[in-house]
Each structure stands twice: as C-alpha cells, then as structure tokens.
Write a structure and sequence with these properties.
By secondary structure, this protein is α+β, with helices and mostly antiparallel strands. Helices cover 24% and strands 36% of the residues. The protein contains 4 helices and 7 strands; from the N terminus they run H-E-E-E-E-E-E-H-H-H-E. Helix 2 crosses helix 4.
Length: 143
C-alpha cells in the first residue's frame, strides 16, 4: 500500500507513540525469495494459555503473510523497540472465527471494522464472525 513507507518511518521515529498503541512493524524473510520485508500491521494483545500473544489480521488474498505459514522467526517493532518473536498463521476458518469472537469481545470497536454485528449484550454475531473468517487469516506472534 502506498502509505506503508510513511507508517514504517513513523513507527521507527521518536513520534511512534502516535500509532504504536495498536500498530507495529513485522519484519520477516520471504520464504521463496529470501528477501527481507517489513510490513506495518494493526495488532491486539490477548492472553492465550497464560502467555501474551499479539494477534494481527490480514485478508486472505494478500500475500505477505504466506511466508509465515508453518511458523517463522520475525522481528516486531513494538512501541519503538525491536523484539524477536515467532509468528504463525491461522487459516482454519473455525479457528479464525473463534479468535475473531475473542478479539471483538476484547476490542468491541473492531466489530464495526470487521463488519460483525453485536447483540444487545455486546456479544458478536456468530454468523457474521464465521462469514468474516472466510475472508481473513490470523497471524499470531509470541516471544
């Protein structure tokens, strides 16, 4: 995307605080090319079995996340600091649905972005979440 270099520069600058609460850089090596890539992504911190995991979403038709299939070492730029991590991709639609529901429970404002309706109690509509899961993958990053 045309604005990625601008976001990347900002996240590496002393002004990263404007974005780094929910935006990070993920640096990885292309599986086929061996080239290094850096991509700015939105993220959400969630607890998974007592460990902190950073969740990122991407549309399935995008290609950047495919280099992370099966797990891959990455470097995350989080709040101005580079952090080595491991990343993996969740492609299974049922698992993506489950994660999306937890994601929206923790960050209800994302329901609108994902186009998932919330019921009167604030619970995500499971039909909407399952439909969105057909279009998204989840990237899990952890240290």
């Amino acid at each position: 995307m045309w604005f990625n270099p601008i976001i990347t520069q900002l996240l590496r600058s002393p002004f990263h605080g404007m974005l780094s609460k929910n935006t990070m850089l993920i640096a990885y090596t292309g599986r086929k090319t061996g080239k290094s890539f850096i991509t700015p992504v939105n993220y959400l911190r969630m607890d998974e079995d007592g460990a902190e995991v950073l969740y990122t979403t991407s549309y399935r038709e995008r290609v950047w996340w495919r280099s992370l299939r099966g797990g891959a070492p990455v470097t995350l730029t989080l709040r101005g600091k580079d952090v080595p991590a491991q990343a993996c991709v969740v492609e299974d639609e049922h698992e993506v649905t489950e994660i999306l529901v937890r994601y929206v429970h923790q960050a209800p404002g994302m329901a609108r972005y994902f186009q998932i309706r919330l019921d009167a109690s604030g619970a995500p509509d499971m039909t909407d979440a399952a439909e969105v899961a057909t279009r998204l993958v989840i990237i899990k990053s952890f240290q």
